[in-house]
Amino acid sequence: MIYRAPPADALLAEPIDAFTAVYHRPSGQTHLLVEPAPEILDALGRDGLTLAKLRAALAERYDLTEADDLAERLEELVAAGLVSAA
């Protein structure tokens, strides 16, 4: 499965304390995200990544443990309409 973030111009992100407010222009919805969701969106990009490649990309920048459930975070982003999966 390949996970993709929307085009960069479809999202407007603004950090607010421990949250990142993400306005999704196509839906008109604003989402409040916490770490690692904004980092996942940034890492995925428009070309997309598999779960394994996403884990590797994030591990280069962040201290990930096996307990970090990226699959669950991805499914939450898919359910929110911020990530597509195919």
Automatic annotation (TrEMBL):
<protein>
    <submittedName>
        <fullName>PqqD family protein of HPr-rel-A system</fullName>
    </submittedName>
</protein>
<dbReference type="InterPro" id="IPR027599">
    <property type="entry name" value="PqqD-rel_X"/>
</dbReference>
